[in-house]
TrEMBL record:
Species in which this protein is naturally found: Castor canadensis
Keywords for this protein: Cell projection, Cilium, Flagellum
Protein name from the UniProt record: Cilia- and flagella-associated protein 52 isoform X2
Gene that encodes the chain: Cfap52
Length: 531
């Protein structure tokens, strides 16, 4: 079942859940006087349902589109009457009338003549005289809801690239359009040629007006929210975020003011308190798997799926150096030593490589071939004489970084995702797809104890505080958990992610916990204990 959740906006709390649709809900619209809510089910459901807001119950439902056309994907209510709404989609535009006495809704198909269009967006004029639909072809159809006929269509020539994905009617006349190519346009019927336009980053997903439309907000596919003043038609970036799964998060040594995250093709540096994006480093069409700050804070070292290790300057984002073909099947994990002289990388083929970083040179010191599958996490001991690597082949290996040999090997029936040294460095804790948190003796690789880390799904991220009293975990159950290290018990649980948590860190100084997830979210939590 797919639920509709009704919220009280002022109190910021959930009123009720309305469940009837199966699988997915495409679109929702409130009636002008907030009497009704209309909802449109996804392709597996295919129905349109009208709900009474006062009774919090369904009034009636009906299949949204006819048999010989595609699915309806958008819905808009009349601006004047609570009894009329319009649905549109692949080859279908319908005007519906609600008959409250008989609890029925009656559709009328709109006529577009020879034109076959797939509707992406829809907007109603303030006086209900017309409604406008934006199509994947990149043109606009102006429809009359009374006669159900097409009034005009345009532009004839330069249609909007990648479709008209968002459309809004303005009180003063004219339309605001957003295209799939990120173009924001003000235009008027019947020509629909751009009168004012600006190019934004990412396809436009929504436009929402403030007041009469003297100012409006625009959201894009690349997770940008812009504020635009109508008069000068200039954009101001209000908020940004990652638009792909976030792979890693790191703090620079000894400060909680900033942190860096990576997702798909970009690395971003954020200001912790204000959540503002300070810097973005983009490498087009590549995927960044991991990042780390050098201890001196002069470079961000990153691991990429094209097998390169790239180092960037954290102030400017300038590429300082790149180590080409560092690994065969992409670089999957990375760590730096505290003397800033070495970088340790792990690859998709399972090799662990130690690199010597000089002033101008980067040279391979040793390739350690033990793991049979990709390396998922690397942690270095404080004195730089030892490191531990976790791999999805079910082993964790403790390496001697002086002799460049294997010290100890830990075996478990799991794909290891994360590993941490206890600050006193005689124990390590690991976790992975078997949902168990295991404590191991560094000296001989024996297991000390195992805890049940979560009830469902892998544990992907783990970090331990500087004192070693508590540690945090996060995984596919979308929860973050704070544990007491000695007792082995959960002290706090954080609910907030809607995707799988990929990595998690405690800030230096134990003020915050920052967790990142596969839906592109970065969440900052207050650390529950006084430091």
């Amino acid at each position: 079942m797919a639920d509709i959740i009704l919220w009280d906006y002022k109190k910021r709390e959930l009123i009720t859940r309305l469940s009837l649709h199966k699988g997915k809900i495409e679109a929702l619209a409130f009636s002008p006087n907030d009497l009704y809510l209309v909802s449109l089910g996804g392709p597996d459901d295919g129905s349109v349902v009208v709900w009474s807001i006062a009774k919090r119950d369904a009034i009636c439902g009906s299949p949204a589109a006819g048999l010989n056309v595609g699915n309806a994907t958008t819905v808009v209510f009349s601006r004047c009457r609570d009894e009329m709404f319009v649905t549109a989609g692949n080859g279908t535009i319908r005007v519906w009338e609600l008959d409250l006495l008989n609890r029925k809704i009656w559709p009328t198909e709109c006529q577009t003549g020879q034109m076959k269009r797939i509707v992406m967006s829809i907007s109603m004029a303030d006086d209900d005289s017309f409604f406008y639909v934006g199509t994947t072809t990149g043109d606009i159809l102006k429809m009359n809801p009374r006669t159900k006929l097409m009034a005009d269509t345009g532009p004839v020539k330069d249609k909007y690239s990648l479709g008209v994905s968002a459309i809004r009617c303005l009180k003063m006349g004219g339309l605001l359009l957003g295209s799939g190519a990120g173009l924001l346009v003000f235009c008027k019927s019947p020509s629909y040629k751009p009168i004012k336009k600006i190019q934004l980053q990412g396809g436009v997903t929504s436009i929402t007006l403030r007041g009469e439309g003297h100012q409006f907000f625009v959201g894009t596919e690349e997770s940008h929210i812009y504020r635009v003043n109508f008069t000068d038609f200039k954009e101001t970036l209000v908020a940004t975020c990652h638009f792909e799964a976030v792979q890693d998060i790191v703090f620079p040594f000894g400060t909680a003011e900033l942190f860096a995250t990576c997702a798909k093709e970009d690395i971003r540096v954020w200001h912790t308190m204000s959540s503002r994006e300070l810097l973005r480093i983009t490498v087009p069409n590549m995927t960044c798997h991991g990042i780390d700050f050098m201890r001196d804070g002069k470079s961000i070292i990153s691991a990429w799926n094209d097998g390169k290790i790239r180092a960037f300057a954290p102030e400017t984002g300038r590429l300082m150096y790149a180590i080409n073909s560092a690994h065969r099947i992409g670089v999957t994990a990375i760590a730096t030593t505290s003397d800033c002289k070495r970088v340790i990388s792990g690859g998709g083929e399972g090799e662990v490589r130690v690199w010597q970083i000089g002033g101008q040179t980067q040279k391979l010191e040793e390739a350690l071939k033990e793991h049979k599958s990709s390396v998922s996490c690397i942690r270095v001991k404080r004195n730089n004489e030892e490191c531990v690597t976790a791999s999805t082949d079910g082993t964790c290996i403790i390496w001697d970084l002086v002799r460049l040999r294997r010290n100890q090997m830990i075996l478990a029936n799991t794909l290891f995702q994360c590993v941490c040294y206890h600050p006193e460095e005689f124990q390590i804790i690991t976790s992975g797809t078997d949902r168990k948190i295991a404590y191991w003796e560094v000296f001989d690789g024996s297991v000390i104890r195992e805890l049940e880390g979560s009830l469902s799904g892998s544990i992907n991220g783990m970090d331990i505080t500087q004192e070693g009293v508590h540690f945090v975990t996060g995984g596919n159950d979308h929860l973050i958990k704070v544990w007491d290290y000695n007792e082995g018990e959960v002290t706090h649980v954080g609910v907030g992610h809607s995707g799988n948590i990929t990595r998690i860190r405690v800030s230096p100084g134990n003020q915050y916990i920052i967790s990142v997830s596969a839906d592109g979210a970065i969440l900052r939590w207050k650390y529950p204990f006084a430091s």
